[in-house]
Description:
The chain has 179 residues and is an alpha+beta fold.
Amino acid sequence: MLPFRSGRSHRGSTLFALILITAVGLVANAGRAKDTKKPKPKSAEKNVSDSSASVPIPIGHEAKGVTLPDYDLEGRIRGRFLAGVARRLDEHHLQMRDLKMHTFTAEEKPDLEIDMTTSILDLKTHVLSSKERTTVKRTDFELTGNSMEFNTSTREGTLVGDVKMKVFGRSHFGQPEAE
């Protein structure tokens, strides 16, 4: 007997239609579940700001050509470390040579560029320090000094010893530029 005359085909198509409707309903519900955002638990926020856990270099080892992002509590990038060589000194300290650090504004646009020959980043306090000549650049100025401490969280720093500053675009200050 042919399948469509026995009724087996009708039962199979009904079962197929039920499965299809159920699958479409599950997909629609999954799409709605993605749209509703749940607040992050406090433990997840703590993990974002814990820099020591995010550095993939074991204690006592060094890595060449390291790029490390630095995120705030909301998950926005606030800085990027580009180190020629990075060495993990202990659980909370990372030594970097030939470091270029780029900072970003709250809108995630480039802001400062900090060049250090050697530096140490305290992963617990987020303080980057160097006892060698350091240069800080932005589109409107360039600042150099013999040593520096820079807090990557608060974006506050201190340059000490033979500090020099070049300011670009003096017309912004209301003074005519020299010819």
